[in-house]
Design brief:
- This protein has 12 helices and 3 strands.
- Helix 8 runs antiparallel to helix 12, helix 9 packs antiparallel against helix 11 and helix 11 runs antiparallel to helix 12.
- Helices cover 55% and strands 5% of the residues.
- Strands 1-2-3 form a 3-stranded parallel sheet, covered by helices on one side.
- The mean pLDDT is 91.
- It is mainly α.
- The N and C termini lie far apart (54 Å).
């Protein structure tokens, strides 16, 4: 049995978990194991997580539940305490680079893509799509234009809110992390978004580090809320209005 969000970027809902628990209460057809995979498990809301507790505490015979998450700290403590944690580390950098280079076309940069994907080769391969890379360049250009007062943040917020995934928020947090590094450590520090160093340095130079940290906190909160029923347009408006020159006056 597999339980995944019904839509990209959405959460696991209580009705999905209740349906899973009903299925697991039955015997398997051949008397063998019943295996359920919840992915990403950290996308369960509080009600869904609570509805899973009894099945985790007292599963029927020959039942295995696999809760897959790359952010296990976001799982409720009541869930984590009832699970055995199995960690899977990233492949060695050179191994990942060699594999990724074999998958990419000429002219693509495996090292940059691995940096953007935190060393995860499959995620790096997904980011190599020309449309994804073009979208990333456009989002950074919009962010810079808003900071300089050349673009109204509200139409941009409406555009970002229509996205079905959280890639823009992930990029935004990554850019802010690099800007904080550039603000604190100077020009020669290694950053993740090395292809955008000039733009990020220019934006970092116009803001003090304390403000950059506050922006980073806002984006982390938005990432946590993005899998819930939050009004995405209001959330994006809040982020981008805070980034605009008017918010600094």
């Amino acid at each position: 049995l597999e339980v995944r969000p019904a839509e990209e970027g959405k959460g696991l809902l209580i009705d999905q978990i209740r349906g899973l628990c009903r299925e697991l209460s039955l015997k398997s057809h051949a008397g063998g194991y019943k295996v359920a995979v919840l992915e990403p498990a950290d996308r369960m809301n509080v009600a869904a997580a609570n509805s899973l507790l009894k099945t985790l505490e007292e599963p029927t015979d020959n039942t295995l539940l696999l809760l897959v998450s790359d952010q296990p700290a976001r799982l409720p403590a009541t869930i984590r305490s009832r699970c055995q944690q199995l960690s899977f580390s990233l492949p060695e950098r050179e191994t990942a680079r060699t594999w990724l280079a074999g998958q990419l076309g000429d002219g693509q940069a495996p090292d940059l893509l691995l940096d953007l994907a935190d060393g995860a080769p499959l995620r790096a391969l997904a980011l190599s799509d020309d449309k994804v890379l073009a979208r990333r360049r456009e989002r950074l250009a919009q962010l810079q234009a808003i900071q300089c007062g050349r673009q109204d943040p509200l139409p941009v917020a409406a555009e970002w809110a229509r996205e079905s995934d959280s890639l823009t928020l992930q990029w935004l947090h990554s850019w802010l992390t690099d800007m904080i590094k550039l603000s604190q450590a100077g020009q020669d520090v290694a950053i993740r978004n090395s292809d955008s160093a000039k733009v990020l340095r220019a934006m970092a130079d116009s803001l003090d580090c304390q403000r950059l940290y506050r922006h980073s906190d806002r984006v982390l909160q938005a990432l946590r809320l993005s899998a819930t029923g939050v009004n995405r347009q209001l959330m994006m408006e809040d982020l981008l209005l805070a980034w605009s020159p008017a918010a600094r006056n």
